[in-house]
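ok so heres the complex, two chains, lmk if somethin looks off
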Amino acid sequence: MLFPLYWMVVTAFSGQGSLTSGPLRWFPENPTLDGFRRAFELLPFGSFFVNSLAIALVAMALSVTLNLMAGYVLAKYRFRGRQAVFVVIVSTLMIPVQVVMVPQFQLVAGLGWIDSYWAVIVPRAAEAFGIFLCRQFMLAIPDEILEAARMDGAGHLRVFWSVVLPMCRPLIAVLVILTFMYRWNEFAWPLIVLNDQQLFTVPIGLAFLQGEYGTDYPALMGMALLSTLPVLVVFALFQKQFVEGVARSGLR
Amino acid sequence: MTTTAPAAVTAPLPEDDEEQRPTRKRRGAWKDSAAAWAMLSPNLLVFGLFLLLPLLATFWLSLYSSSGFGPREFIGFENYSELFGDDTFWRATLNTGVYALLTVPVSLVLGLGVALAINRPMRGRGLLRGIYYVPYVISGVVIAVAGRWVFNENVGVVNRLLRGAGLDGVPWQSDGVGAMASLVLISVWTKIGFCMVVYLAGLQSIPTEYLEAAQMDGAGRWTRLRHVIVPLLKPTTVFLVVLGVIESFQVFDIVYVLTGGGPGNATEMLVTYAYAEGFDARRQGYAATIGVVTYLLIAVLTALWWRRQKATEADQ
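and the predicted structre for the whole thing:
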């Protein structure tokens, strides 16, 4: 399972020539950081990382907040139209980005958002999968607890914030991991709405590096490895609660 | 995997739980409704504006010829008749189907295998679980960039190993079958971990008494797997199949970077073709038409699954 990753590491630390000629070497002969250095010289990966991080963090905070609220409402409120809202939201799960991307692009262009962070962040803020997870998870919260909080005079937001959210830690861990990961890794949509190289995200930068400097494998693999680190860090931080969250969200 | 919807799906929608909750007829009921809509509104706004409206617009745009510049021209169903006679479109449809038929079952079986293997108290279990999950969290672009290097025909490690073992190298890039094979192998590699995690969650929901009872009755490991575990995991399996099929219809990043749809159209998928038409060839109306057909295909598949789901429930 880890071999491709191992091979990326070997490649990243190898000299450019030693990979394509001579016998196959299982360890870099003279480990060097030149590949990383070249990647940063070829393209401004520093700003790509800043862009990706800003987009992923803001988008994550926004989606997680909206998803938790919507999931809570759909799980715990009774009102006319609830079922319809839920069905509409869930049915959007099966729409591939590429199906709606042309009108989405026109809309975002019409708003004047092309080449801005907002173009990437806002259209992705509503996420059916997240809402679905939240609803499933929150169905298990006993109504009595919410009632009791109401009796004590807590308002709607107060109940949500002080009673519901603390019970949702594993759920929040799952949402944080997944949305950060999806936004950090996203490729097709940012590729469409970001044309200015200064605004590129890391995946677009990588695809460019591959296209333009495709044979510099140490540079490519070095940058590819660096680009996975933030996701791995987020994952490692929240991993303990992840499986529990998945299990309790009814994904089984 | 970088699509919006992580592409999961409607696991069988849980039955409404009206009966279970205490009736709550308070005077402030309408206030509850208002609060509910208020908390839903940011979501509904984004959904409506950026998903539902564009979906409708896609249908509408498919009736036009539009380059994105200048006025668009209404052409009725001309895009559809062109699509019908378009070899690349049929090839992309076939490729998408083949891709789904190969990646989904293989990643499910391997994912279940791994889940069974590590679903017991053992040292390093968390680490193992993490290792299998790693490929799933890596971006499609990174996977594809690495895949191109590992599967490079001349100097890639796979072909060098094959040649070292006295075999011929596989034409991963110049031959259509080879390119599809590398795409499928890489995709399966990324999906095993997700299937494993979901199966683990499913396994943990099986009461141990069932397995103990089966064991008492003299059922061996294989019998227990076949007659107890697999049937009880059916909802999980159905969920993963639907999810996998829908994900297969959305596969973009890996194809775009790994093969670019080539050689020829050997690995062109519906969504990569739609992208190429919409943003490279700038035929937005035609791209919208491919989008509509893709959407309808997914909708039909989901509906079929839904009917089967209902039928199975009725049987039980």
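quick notes: The two ends of chain A are 25 Å apart (CA to CA). thats all i got rn
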